From TrEMBL, chain A:
<feature type="region of interest" description="Disordered">
    <location>
        <begin position="1"/>
        <end position="29"/>
    </location>
</feature>
<protein>
    <submittedName>
        <fullName>Carbohydrate ABC transporter permease</fullName>
    </submittedName>
</protein>
<feature type="transmembrane region" description="Helical">
    <location>
        <begin position="93"/>
        <end position="123"/>
    </location>
</feature>
<keyword id="KW-0813">Transport</keyword>
<feature type="transmembrane region" description="Helical">
    <location>
        <begin position="210"/>
        <end position="235"/>
    </location>
</feature>
<feature type="compositionally biased region" description="Polar residues">
    <location>
        <begin position="1"/>
        <end position="12"/>
    </location>
</feature>
<feature type="transmembrane region" description="Helical">
    <location>
        <begin position="267"/>
        <end position="288"/>
    </location>
</feature>
<keyword id="KW-1003">Cell membrane</keyword>
<dbReference type="InterPro" id="IPR000515">
    <property type="entry name" value="MetI-like"/>
</dbReference>
Automatic annotation (TrEMBL), chain B:
<dbReference type="InterPro" id="IPR035906">
    <property type="entry name" value="MetI-like_sf"/>
</dbReference>
<dbReference type="GO" id="GO:0005886">
    <property type="term" value="C:plasma membrane"/>
</dbReference>
<dbReference type="GO" id="GO:0055085">
    <property type="term" value="P:transmembrane transport"/>
</dbReference>
<keyword id="KW-1003">Cell membrane</keyword>
<feature type="region of interest" description="Disordered">
    <location>
        <begin position="1"/>
        <end position="22"/>
    </location>
</feature>
<comment type="similarity">
    <text>Belongs to the binding-protein-dependent transport system permease family.</text>
</comment>
<dbReference type="InterPro" id="IPR000515">
    <property type="entry name" value="MetI-like"/>
</dbReference>
<feature type="transmembrane region" description="Helical">
    <location>
        <begin position="187"/>
        <end position="209"/>
    </location>
</feature>
<feature type="transmembrane region" description="Helical">
    <location>
        <begin position="36"/>
        <end position="59"/>
    </location>
</feature>
Amino acid sequence: MSAPSTTGTRPTPASAGGRKRAALQGRAPQDTPAGIGTYLFLAVTTLFAAFPLYWMFVIATSTDEATAQLPPAVIPGDQFLVNLNEVFTLQDVYFAASLVNSVIVATTVTAAVLFFCSLAGFAFAKLRFRGSRPLMLFVVLTLTVPNQLGVVALYIVMGKLGWNGTLLAVIVPGLVTAFGVFYMRQFIVNSVPDELVEAARVDGATTMRIYWSVVLPSIRPALAVLGLLTFVATWNDFQWPLITLNGTDYPTSMVAISDLASGNYVIYRRVLAGAFVATVPLLVVLIIGGRRIVRGIMEGAVKS
Amino acid sequence: MPTTRAAPDPATRRPRPTPVRSSTWRDRLHRFDVRYVPYLLIAPFFLLFLVFGLFPMVFNGVVALRHWRLDDPELTGWAGTENFRRLLTDGDFGNALYNTSGIFLLSTVPQLLLALIIASMLNRRLRAQTWWRVGALLPYITPITASTLVFNVFFSRDFGMANWALGLLGIGTETPIDWRADKLHSWIAIATMVNWKWIGYNALLYLAAMQSIPRDVYEASALDGAGPWRQLWRITVPMIRPVVIFTVVLSTIGGLQLFTEPMLFDLNAQTARGGAGGEWQTVAQLIYKVGWKDLNLGYAAAMSWALFLIILVVAALNTLLTNRISGGRR
């Protein structure tokens, strides 16, 4: 095929050639038939990614019939407030309290992770001390250890501390993460100039002072990314909260959702109304910080 | 205590003997600051890891060698290798291991392949680039508890959207598929949830690596007549090999510990049975059941040690294999 067609047309058998040429000439593929294929493909995958969320909302706003009809309902109903009211007034599941618990856990953990990980990252990136290299290696190695597998013993440890059934059991182990330390170290190595640290040192600034007025201001993007990722992960954590908080009246919202889905007859419009409410904070996080999370995940990948 | 205001009083200009008291104080403080404060900064991680990471893991080994029941605190004492020996003949464990590997295969392979393809699509010049990427993250931020329950409705036998869609294709119109009745179907359903959750995330990791591949490599191969598919396997994959291995290891660790999806796929969540006959009970789920439903923590600990070893072996094998496949041949 000569002369690449400039306006998008039907996909033709020559699409591969058009794409190749587009790549060669550095033009955007929307100008070629193959480009249409790319967009179509991405549109379908994005729809696939978004559909369960959308459908969660559909059922959360519908009556029971919505889950018992063919073809399935695809348009939101008007029962959202009714369903929501049922979830929040259930006697044996204290859903509102569980949401509050989730907020407490996620914000505490996020704040602590940001503080402790940036401190440790700063130390590993810019301070000289004996053993810093092997210690950092150790941190990286712990990344590969599946923490969950000590779960039985962790439960016993928490029992000895008397923390089982309390939020402490969920919060404390998460206060600082190996990933956070690693991530912060990478970022600080690259974004805080050595000269600045040295200069502050010569001026007589203490280490904490340097952290506060040199490091912190220049790692705001990394703080945002790590904060968002930590919040999402903590909010969504299920297994450990289930183990340590199960049977208590006030678990986190993820455990409360699984309580809603327990029993011999599950009312999905109610369960999914609850699930939707517990997902909203994360959607907000994605809307506020979507670009940053994307960038953060991508940067984390290149260097690991 | 003297405040440490930034004063141009320097340990560097040593020779001049400065007024005694304050300077020694400051010197000492300075020395402490330089020598020990770094350890204070990294201490939180190591302390917490020691107490809530390393110790439990080691202690887990001890628990595994003991009788340890939640409902019978009196029953202590060494069990020796009893728990482990029991594992070898335990049909439930074998079944859980079988389910876990089945779901693992059904989820990991399509997941990473699709992620590769999506990443190579995202790697083209696109309009609204960022929005496609953010869209890929929707499943990542969705709580697994929430999405699994949506998929439960999706995979319900009589009015499920999956069966409805398959019916349009002429599949299962006579007798609708019961997704919870047998191993294969329940595995497919659960693997779908896992795939849905992680494809976008992996695609972003691949995309990041792909962006550092120079364009002219593709140009050269295009001139040699290599099509997109060939390019993907002969250029892209070998050049992003470290990230591919990284994702393989990550999804191995994650896949073998699968817990939330099989738990909530049960119509009565928290029974932890994984189907009426344990059709989709995974090892992580069995550990939960043995430990906290049957209250036998000792045995559960032995299981988690076994799972840990299995993960190590499988992850190592997968790494080797991926390394071979993605770079070995030229």
